[in-house]
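Sanity check. The docking grid for N-(iminomethyl)-L-glutamic acid depends on where the pocket ends up, so I'm generating a full predicted complex first rather than guessing from homology. Inputs follow.
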Amino acid sequence: MKRLFKNIKGLVNVWDQPPVLVSGREMKELPVLENAWLAVEDDLIADFGMMSEWPGISDWRDLEVIDAEGKYIFPAWCDSHTHIIYAGSRESEFEDRIRGLTYEQIAAKGGGILNSAKLLHTESENDLYESAWKRLNEMMYQGTGAVEIKSGYGLTTESELKILRVIQRLKEQHPLTIRATFLGAHALPEIYKGIPDKYVDLIINEMLPAIASEKLADFIDVFCEKNYFSVAQMERILDAGQKFGLPPKVHVNQFNSIGAIDAAVKKNALSVDHLEVVTEADIRALCSSTVLPVALPCCSLFIGIPYTPARRIIDRGLPLALASDYNPGSSPTGNMNLVVSLACIQMQMTVSEAIQAATLNGAAAMALSNTHGSISPGKKANFFVTKEMPSVAFLPYSFGSVLVEEVYIGGEKR
Ligand code: NIG
Ligand code: FE
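Predicted complex below; grid placement will be based on this.
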């Protein structure tokens, strides 16, 4: 099937030869081709150009021509950090927070991740699949084209495997591109209180080998934080993951800076995510590395914690990616349009920086740069067409409005 989009007001993040990611000052530049056409063949982007250089079409059979007058076409969002395999919901904790409890206080009294783990334990694989499918659809219709999904609400071998098998089925059956991350070290189960290293042993000796033998994970994650997992425990888990070829993508510096960034750099992490609390030493560690920082502004908004200091990161020449952190506790949304708006409104990111962070850099944070994150010949035809709008900046400016009109994933209209 061939599709030709014509009269496009602006083709956003368009590159003949896209970089793997963009860092520092490069993020300020967002290539936009005005008054353009875009050709799609089967599931791939075939070509693009200016309307003044309309392509010669020799064969009109099976060709659909779509008029995008007044509209922009963006590469689909690349959401590199989500936890969408969960049972139930946690709005009672939301109400607790409204009454004044903090996220950490709620976790300390048995809420939080352990609450979701309890709910997931009795949920069937099919029900988890159905609810995650609906979340993926919602994300897709909001313009997302690639998603990383973590386990982490299982916390037993059986339940972690259940989650990862659900992700595997979604990978095979859902149109979105999906990457799976094993996050057994998300919280310490009640029965390991006082003997946390025994749980780390279980992760290393039982969960990881089982997951690796079924090839259920692409990456490994640890929530490295006070009252969760220490730097030494994270190092042990990442070393074990490395033996199975799983690159780390880790939760660090959400509430405290405890040396996790430095450790993640030494373990060659693909990304370090959260970073709401960042010291100068943390920034220096990042500057000496190729590790990609990832910010999650909807989590900051929802639980009222600081925003990742994007300016301090980007102005030092570092790259930054943006993701939704979609999960039932700290960010119950997968809306990347809101993520991009918040990055502009609360993190002082420019419109170009925020869009780069949610497309090219988001793809890089999932090791999907070759196929996703920009409008480039040979990449997957994953993009969205906006409603008519006056400029690129109008999209993040109109926060809360739905400006994504049509979504194409793998070249098909969804
Ligand atoms: O990324 N910080 C750790 N994990 C999630 C929250 C999980 C939850 O509250 O259920 C996060 O914010
Ligand atoms: Fe998270």
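Relevant for the grid: The pocket of fe (iii) ion (ligand 2) is lined by residues 81, 83, 251, 325, 327 (CB under 6 Å).
Also worth noting: The mean pLDDT is 97.
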